[in-house]
Amino acid sequence: MAQEREDDPVVEEGWDPPIVAFDFDGTLTVRDSYTAFLKWRTPAFRWWLGSLRLAPAAVAYLFHRDRGRIKAAATKVFLSGVPRERLEADARRFAELFSRKLLRPDAMIAWKRWRTKRVKLVIVTASPDIVVAPFARGLAAHDLLGTPLAFDAQDRVTGAFSSPNCRGAEKVARLKAAYGPDLRVHAAYGDTSGDTEMLAIAEQPYFRVFTGKP
After folding, report:
1. Over the stretch 104-113, which tens digit does the pLDDT of each residue have?
2. pLDDT in tens, 141-174
3. Does the residue 13 lie in any domain?
4. What is the rounded CA–CA span in Å between residue 75 and residue 149?
5. How many CB atoms lie within 10 A of CB 110?
6. Residue at 116 is within a domain
7. From 21, 41, 47, 117, which residue has the greatest number of CB atoms within 10 Å?
8. Which three-class secondary structure state does DSSP give residue 141?
9. Sequence-ordered list of residues with C-beta below 8 angstroms from that of 58, at least 6 positions apart, any chain
10. Total count of domains within the chain
């Protein structure tokens, strides 16, 4: 993978801005934000009980290795029935409290540098978009592509997702759905195998280039 450079070109006048895509968890942040969010909003005793309920799903994960399935299981255990409005408020409060603790300082330097160029900054994450949205707004991201939660007729979390987990090939599919099959990804940043396909379509792929801690 490429090493990050300072001499990235500004797009010529008249061109549509190319995309610079950032994975969120582990790339912009030091750890998984969704797990941190669930633990933060769950009382300790309920977290312990919920973890026990998740044990079968955790054992099954050792065989199927489908992160989407275990994330959906955690969503069902900890968020089922939560109204959208309350979840959005909790996500805003979580971002207010934890942005400085979660965001990598060297990643923020790179993000701010890209903001000075004619590019479209897009966060592409497997985490639920409703949880990452306050961080994306705070960073002035141009777009956020995440895993959407499903809501029932009363606008409460069902415990499922309304589309495939935004990981691996799904990241590329989501980018193409948003920007067309001929999109130009000028640069992409990731830190796991779930970012491989997104990095593969980038002119400048950056893998695990951020190591800073708050």
Report:
1. 999 999 999 9
2. 999 999 999 999 999 999 999 999 999 999 999 9
3. no
4. 9
5. 20
6. yes
7. 21
8. coil
9. 70
10. 1
SS3 at position 176: helix
Burial of 146 (0-12, 13-18, 19+ CB in 10 A): buried
Name the residue among 79, 119, 130, 123 with its Cα closest to residue 103: 123
pLDDT category, 63, cuts 50, 70, 90?
Answer: low
CATH number of the structural domain spanning residue 68: 3.40.50.1000
**pLDDT surpassing 50 at residue 83:** yes
Per-residue tokens: 134: 């306050």
| Cα–Cα dist 73/56, whole Å | 10
pLDDT of residue 72: 87
At residue 8, what are phi and psi to the nearest 5 degrees? -65, 135
- Alpha carbons 194 and 191: distance in angstroms, whole number: 8
Amino acid (1-letter code) at residue 129: D
Residue 188 near residue 1 (C-beta atoms within 8 A): no
Tens digit of each residue's pLDDT (9 = 90 or more) over 180-203: 999 999 999 999 999 999 999 999
Q: Which domain holds residue 61?
A: 19-207
3-state class of 174 per DSSP?
helix
Which phi and psi (to 5°) does residue 123 adopt?
A: -90, 125
Whole-model pTM above 0.85? yes
